[in-house]
Each structure stands twice: as structure tokens, then as C-alpha cells.
Amino acid sequence: MDLDTARFVQGLHDHTAGFAKAVAGADPETPAPTCPEWPLRVLAGHVGQAHRWAAGLIRSGPAPVPDPFEADPGAPGEWSGWLHAGAAELAAAVLAAADSPVWTFFGPRPATFWLRRMLHDTTVHHADAALATGTAFEIAPDLADDAISEWLEMLSHPVMATLRPAFAALRGTGQTLQLRPGAGVGWLITRTPAGVRWTRATDTADVTLTGSAGDLLLVLTRRLPPGQVTITGDHDLADHWLAHTAA
What we know:
Blueprint: H1 5-23, E1 31-32, E2 38-39, H2 40-60, H3 79-97, E3 101-102, E4 109-110, H4 112-133, H5 141-155, H6 160-163, E5 175-180, E6 187-192, E7 195-200, E8 207-210, H7 213-220, E9 230-233, H8 235-243
Parallel strand pairs: 5-8
Antiparallel strand pairs: 1-2, 3-4, 5-6, 6-7, 8-9
Helix pairs in contact: 1-3, 1-4, 2-3, 2-4, 5-7
């Protein structure tokens, strides 16, 4: 599914707002169990820091990836405004860059690469915040669908084995996993000796995970337990995949 820049911008603003709402009034030291026990203060700092880092990268070129524990989101009462300002800065930088190529981990790409990447990163951290504070989390099907595709695009890129050595364990001899979002077209993943390959297809596989696109996304990113979706076939293969794709 191809989404346009306007949809990515709207999604970024929606999930930034959702994140801000989820942490509003919460103790800043509340741990987020699905995000290596980061306290909400660090989680909020990371989201706003990442938006500003990506915006600066688009405007001026690559810079070191910042440390989330060094981010300063300000007093909790200021978090919402600070988070919205960071998202607006990123959207403005992307729109100003138009189709100009910018640096990414995978070589030069259009600036929308970072808008899409930050949208989906923010979405997953919105889920972290919602789970930590017991607030509601929702994601539109089209954004969940794109987030799964984007994750598989990154996972299957050859450079990822150097960025995340654990991903090398996903190489295989033809084992297949199917992600099936209800009645929609799913994702067929094949583990090859050269790495992960995938395509949009609904087909038989060694193991199939079935659920809404939103639930599949949160299971794949370990924000929800595997039991949130239906697993049929080789459960050990599904467990191995999830154990070696920690985001």
C-alpha cells in the first residue's frame, strides 16, 4: 500500500498527539515495560528528540544518533507542546526538502524516508506509552499495514545484518512465515541463505499469524504477546522469528 506525504504527516501528528495524551498527568518515572523499562520521561524525550534529529539531518546532513537518556522534554506539563513542536519541525523539513535525496542508513533516499520512519517509530512508542499508563491505543489499518511493510523492507536490507547482528540468525533454507490481516492481502516471508525475502501475497506457509494489521504490528514489535493473534503451523518457527527481530 503506497501512502502519500500528506498521509504520513497526518499520521505523525495523530500519533504524536496520542502519545502526548497517553502520558499526560502520569508520573514521569513510570516504567514502560515494553520499551526496555525506560521511564516515561526518557520515552517522551526520545520521541521529541528523534523528530528533531531527523529534521536536522534532512536540513544539514547526518549527525550522530542521540542518546535518549540525554533528551530533555522539560517539565511534564510542557511535554505536549514540546512533542507537537518536534513533529511540526520534522514535517516542515520534509516538505521543504521536496524530493531531494538525503542521507539514510541505506544510502540516499527522498526525505519522506525519515517522515515514514519517524511516524512508525512514534506509533510503536505511542503503544508503549498507552500500555504503560493503561490508556487506549488505536492505529488506522492503512498505517499499520504500511508499518509492517516498512519494517520488513528494513529487515530484508543487506546492511541490517551489520547494524543488528542478531538479524543474521534469520537466514534459513526456505522456511516461510505468513502474516495474514484477516481477509486482506498478507505478507509472505521467506528465510533464505542470503537473508530475509518477502512479498505481498496470501499463500500457504510453514507458520501463519492471523489478526488485524494493528495487532500483527504490535506482536511483531513485541508490544503484545503472540497470543494476541492466531498462530497456525510451526510455532517454534514463529517463536524463533520473534526472538531474533527485537526492535
